[in-house]
Design goal:
With 89 residues, this protein is mainly α. It contains four helices and no strands. It starts with a helix and ends with a helix.
Length: 89
């Protein structure tokens, strides 16, 4: 049913199939975001740098699978920056 509804919307032009309004993030921007995540996760105590497990591997996989655009990467980095400034952050 869901696939049928998506198909119907595509036929009517109801789902945007064209270009995004922003360029996809570059690999350097994604790597910068991943590094920023890692630094904040370590600083918050969420991630033990001596025993990180699969946390960063899974985070990297997630962020590369979703193909964020430049604005989305900047937004996530801004969130991380603000969280790092928070009391206890």
């Amino acid at each position: 049913v869901v696939c049928y509804e998506i198909y119907r919307q595509l036929e009517r032009g109801g789902i945007e199939t064209g270009e995004w309004d922003r360029a996809p993030a570059t690999s350097a921007q994604i790597e910068g975001l991943i590094g920023h995540f890692e630094a904040e996760l370590v600083a918050s105590g969420f991630l033990d740098p001596d025993n990180p497990g699969q946390t960063m591997t899974r985070l990297r996989r997630l962020l590369t699978r979703v193909t964020p655009d430049e604005t989305e990467v900047a937004m996530l980095r801004g969130i991380l920056k603000q969280l790092g400034k928070a009391p206890g952050g």
